[in-house]
Amino acid sequence: CQLFGYVGIEAVLDQMKIKTMKTGFEFNIMVVGQSGLGKSTMVNTLFKSKVSRKASQPGQEERIPKTVQLQSVTHVIEEKGVKMKLTVTDTPGFGDQINNENCWDPIIKYINEQYERYLREEILITRKRKIPDTRVHGCVYFIPPTGHWLRPLDLEFMQRLSKIVNVVPVIAKADTLTLEERAEFKQRIQEDLKTHAISVYPQEDFDQDPDDRALNDRIREEIPFAVVGADQEHQVNGKRVLGRKTKWGIIEVENPAHCEFPLLRDLLIRSHLQDLKDITHNVHYESYRVRRLNES
After folding, report:
1. Which of 10, 70, 144, 276 is the most buried (most CB within 10 A)?
2. How far apart are CA 170 and CA 267, in angstroms?
């Protein structure tokens, strides 16, 4: 239908923006991996603030938990008037033991508990206008930079978790590998994921249109991202940059020539944050809801 004059339909976008900014956003991220792979540092680098759990005091030995103990920290961070309630869930103790049998059980239990909590609020006769969302929207899995194949633990974990949550695999501490080793390691991981039919985020089945598919195909070619985390600034060519200082120079974490951290940040925050939330609600939570209602 052709309009004869200005109606003002485009103002709907402004109304939605104002309402959303007043309400704010919720984003829940989980990081999984062995101790010492830089999970807390990576989360701090992602959001450029101290949002992860407190590190152990220097000089004190940190006791390794006997089992996987999940620790959640919630912050409200604000940028240019946009508020986001961020919850970071860390998993100290995962993969640290000699016998790691069923070490993923506490993680699966935690994710399902958040779905159950949301479901209980949703099926109430008089429910809240805005249900608190504690569901895990994305799980970043840290792969040790061995340069070989994926370990059976990595394969088993991602196979189980990819069915209930969005899993984004990354190669931790990628500065310990040469560029040739990094490329070869990534290729081996991609082969492993394909061989074992592990569907990591972004999943091919959920591409909505050709534009989304083209963008996600480029992302899938780069997964797993080879990342380096740093929460200290250094002076490079008169500019303050986040990086790691070595005797050979400074590794700039936000420089695409040095590592793929910018690709990870763009995926999690700048381009796919809302998509992560939508897939969590429409796919993973929906399948859990159907299963639970069928059981009852």
Report:
1. 276
2. 12
Note the Cα 220 to chain centre separation in Å. 15
- Two structure tokens written together for 24: 């704010």
Q: Where does the pLDDT of residue 114 fall: very low under 50, low under 70, confident under 90, or very high at 90 and above?
A: very high
Q: Would you say 135 and 285 are in contact if contact means Cβ atoms under 8 Å apart?
A: yes
Phi-psi bin for 137: left (phi > 0), alpha (psi -120 to 50), beta? Answer: alpha
Q: Is residue 166 part of a domain?
A: yes
Instruction: Tell whether 27 is covered by a domain.
Output: yes
CA distance 215 to 263: 12
pLDDT band, residue 63 (cuts 50/70/90):
low
The residue length of the chain stands at: 296
Query: Could you tell me the pLDDT band of residue 126, with boundaries at 50, 70 and 90?
Result: confident
168-225 residue pLDDT tens: 999 998 888 888 998 999 999 999 999 999 999 988 888 778 888 888 888 888 889 9
159/134 Cα distance (integer angstroms): 23
Average pLDDT, integer, range 90-109:
83
CB 42 within 8 A of CB 30: no
Report if residue 5 sits inside a domain: no
Looking at the 3D structure of the chain, how many domains does it have? 1
Q: Which domain holds residue 115?
A: 22-45+69-93+100-295
Count Cβ neighbours within 10 Å for each residue of 64-90 and write b for 16 or more, e otherwise. eeeebebeebeeeeeeeeeebebbbbb
Contact 157/141 with Cβ under 8 angstroms?
A: yes
